[in-house]
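For this section, I looked closely at the sequence of one protein beside the tokens encoding its backbone, which the following lines show:
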Amino acid sequence: MAPIDLAAAPFHLDDAAITWVHATRDALSPRDKLAQLFVLLARGTPDETIEAVRSFKPGGITRIYSDDLIAEYNLSRELAELSSIPLLVSADLEGSRMSLPLGTSVPNPLGLAAVDDLEATTAISTLMAREANAIGLNWSFTPVIDLNIAWRSAIVGTRSYGSDIDKVERHALAQIAAFQANGVAATVKHWPGEGFDDRDQHLVTTVNPLSMADWEANFGRLYRKAIDAGVLSIMSAHIALPAYARAIDPDCGAEAYRPASLSRLLNHDLLRRELGFNGLIVSDATPMAGMGDWGPRDQTLPEVIISGCDVILFSDDPNADLMRLVKAVADGRLNQERVDEAVTRVLALKARLGLHAAPAAPSLESVAGLVASDAHLATAKSVTARVPTLVKDTQGLLPLSPSRHHRVLVFSTGAVVPFVPQPLPLSLPDRLAAEGFEVTLFTPELDVKPSDFDLVLYLFAEETTLTRSRIFLDWVKLTGSVFGGMRRYWHDLPTLMVSLGYPYYLYDAPRVPTYVNAYGSSEAIQAAVLEALLGRTPFAGTSPVDPFCGSDQARY
């Protein structure tokens, strides 16, 4: 193993920290070294999480937080005291419905791109990091530096800063700086770059189809900028880059489509050697079909580490996966030198965050005074108010008024949220009713007569949703029948369509006369949309993607 320069970027460790890394690594048993390479998903109760950490001794966990601040605070303190080796505690800090449920709700990346104000992105990222750090969260799998090029992609969707590379670069670098200045390691993803394939890595290995010259101008540029900015980790995803594999071996055949998470070419040769990345490489979630497609887990799980990832993200059976690594070491597929290299970087990230120095825990009182504080809520509200984007209003409908649009018929599928089996109700109809509108929620049994209403409101709320191959306006599902799906009301009644998520519904409804994108469906976003619809605040957002999907048909 070539020595890792821990004094160099991005770790910048001093002599004492370097000594801690090496001494801690060398004191670990062979089994515990392998366990340090795992980040486990902690979805359960605090007691279940504590037991999993105590028994397995992973390098880290990804915590799915509850809204109980005291319980999560106590858990973070117990985890900190559980082992002599500090724990990496991670999450996907992506905003909107991926905001911490116990913290301040903030816009998602596409919403921040609509605001397009680096001071706003820095302010939001700073408060996110401070709240995360206060409850023991020290590593985020963000920012996403994918590009919204293939607009049908349901998995890039609202997680990206849009389709303009300059905008993505500006906002991603602002978030990296804010996170890492406030105790949270940032991660750029999804290496080697997503956005030109409209499929989902949760379901299939996706493909970055660019030539290497085009890749360098897009993702190569973004990753080099992030590395130069000192990003501490990069997520290697289940995405193939055939052009690079074929540049090495024109006759590589199926190997051209090996996902980056299992590719030494992409992790070691391209990312480490050519781009010069010295930080930690974490795989994307290993239970995803984008990895499982490639081969049996007995083969692929050890290949995650063999290929150059330092961390295995998630496991449905951690003990079985640990034994897969043990067997790979025993039969020579995974050598001890590579294990030690990966462990070194895991420990170096912990040292870079200052975890080795056992920092004093903040008091519950100070945490409660910071998380969702009045100051943070005010900052988030001021930025969120600038997110709603008026895409078109060909009928001159807005602003809405209870006197002119009193009787409102609402068609909605609710908020579609990952891991929630049924759509969640939206509060926007109730907010309208509180403003004096008479709101009727459509049901398939309703006999709609235009004379009974003054406004039709179509309301959708699907942010990026994993394992959904497509997000689209399903007219039949929305109306409950084939004939209802073919009916349009906008020639009989003023009609408004609002998307609280996916920004491309004009593809399926190009002639809807008034259309608004808000990119997220949190309560804060719904409140901001209402203010803009009523004319109390301006529609200040500018579209970070092409909402017309490349078609002039939808402009009119």
The mean pLDDT is 96.
